[in-house]
Design a protein that fits this description.
Elements lengths: L5 H18 L25 E3 L14 E7 L3 E7 L5 H11 L3 E3 L3
Parallel strand pairs: 1-4
Antiparallel strand pairs: 2-3
């Protein structure tokens, strides 16, 4: 039968603590954790620039006339009308350029 007295538990704890301390290899502090993330270079936009991620429907010629809108914290609510056969994305880009915004394509 095993001895589970407080003294034997203390010896076991001390022994396991010594093994953990000597086994970690930390001489000058804790080791760096391995990372799988990649540092990406963040490109900041100018104050008057927008980067729009278009839906597929905005990049094909329209089957009927309509309007397309965008709402951002920079521009607020902006809408543009497009006609039959026109790309809704182009109509909105033109409207934003008229108001002084620079529209960038997502990369």
């Amino acid at each position: 039968m095993r001895d589970f007295s407080p003294w034997s538990q203390a010896r076991l704890f001390a022994l396991s603590g010594m093994l953990l301390l000597t086994g970690c290899g930390a001489v000058n502090g804790p080791p760096e954790a391995p990372s799988t993330t990649v540092m990406r270079k963040v490109r900041s936009l100018p104050a008057n620039a927008l980067r729009i991620h278009w839906k597929d429907a905005a990049l094909v010629p329209a089957l009927r006339a309509g309007h397309v809108c965008i709402v951002t914290y920079k521009t607020g609510h902006v809408c543009a009308k497009y006609s039959f056969g026109q790309l809704p994305a182009v109509a909105l880009k033109e409207k934003l350029r008229e108001e002084g915004w620079v529209v960038l394509d997502p990369k």
